[in-house]
Amino acid sequence: MDLTLLISMIAAALIGTALYTIIGIVPGTDETAVIAPITLALVLAGIEPIVVLTFYLSAIIAHKLTDSVPVAVAGIPGGVMATPMVEHALVLKRYGESDTSIRKMVSGSVIGTLVSVPISLLLASALIPVSDVIKDYANPLLFAGAVLLALLSKNRWLALIIIIPFALLIQGLRSLYWSLNIVPEGTNVFISFFLGITIGPVIITLFDLLNKEKRTSLVRNRKNTIVFNETKQDKGFPNPFKILSPKEIGLSSLASAIGSFTFILSAVGTTTLIGELFSNREKDPVKKSSLAIACMEALANATYISGSLIPLIALGIPLSSVALGPANALFNAPPVFTLEHNLHHILSMGDFLWATLIGIGISLVLTYFVIVRYSKQICTFVFKWIPHEAILGLFLGLVLLLAFMDAGWMNIGGVLLIGLVAGVLHRWGVNFGVQFMVLYSAPWIISILA
What we know:
The chain is mostly helical. It is 74% helix and 0% strand. It contains 22 helices and no strands. The protein has one domain. It is globular and about 65 Å long. The termini are far apart. Helix 12 crosses helix 21 and helix 15 runs parallel beside helix 17 (285-315).
């Protein structure tokens, strides 16, 4: 490998680690909303594909390790994937074990990463011989995936019913653009619609604030007072295998293996289901919550790694909720990447290995050490000086800019419409995975109906 390229990959891993170590701690920063736009911007900027992949993997690991910290110290999830752990983290906080909570979570992340990476690479290699068969049925599989994820959603019947109307909305806007000659006929506006879905919950919240009745009904609170417990400092590099008990290590490893094989399913749903299942037999509340958060954090990391690497290496199509979400720009970012020409077609197996080792390795070691040692200081800085509204406002601005670049001023209105609908659906319990799979399979769904 070229030395310049290697240095670029290491630099990308360091930048991704530093950036998302901070962003991950900011409450309310959803993984897809904060990782997908930056990854997309790097792809469109013409950065080397292997460097972009290294950045993405480091960002995922850093964000997943840090988004559990605000849960432990304040009961506030950093991202969507940290939400299932809130209840258990509050139990440990009530018993004065916030420090234990942080250490268990990040140690679980380490276990999940160490288990998932080899399984993902092996499973991807095993799927390569049948990848052409899978790709031939890509559209029906994406539609089937939308149905499956809808059945696993909180509001399953609404999620099922909305599949066809949402596909009509997407294809209707595309047809409108064609008829007005905004884009050439046959050109599918994709990136901005994808980002509209991603930022949907932010858009619907902003529109809520324009509603006078809704605005006046909002609860006003004084400034929150967050108390940090004193933390114990270990000498040397903290060992995750000593922080977790043998039972926690065993069940976290098993949960990670299950999560790696079920990469196509909803990451949040799988994390909640298996985490609760594994911890239910434990009667002591502290031990139960410690076991639950270790398993959930391990499983969350595993689903994100496998959901990114397996479709990328084996298929070249985003056949998982993670690939359809934060990793989407690695599959489809016209004009740079398309479903017929993306990282799957450009990079060799050796390239994927190097990007995985550098991106995940650097991020895992640095973020783990920093969080175990300095979580209190980082949280103090982030909670005091970095409002999550500012972060989300930055990404909303980027989305609107990309919408204009995709199809002009008219498309800003289209993206806001998509975002409003997606935000309402998300609020009603229709997860992003369903919406993203409908976005991909919309042309096929409408062609079948027509």
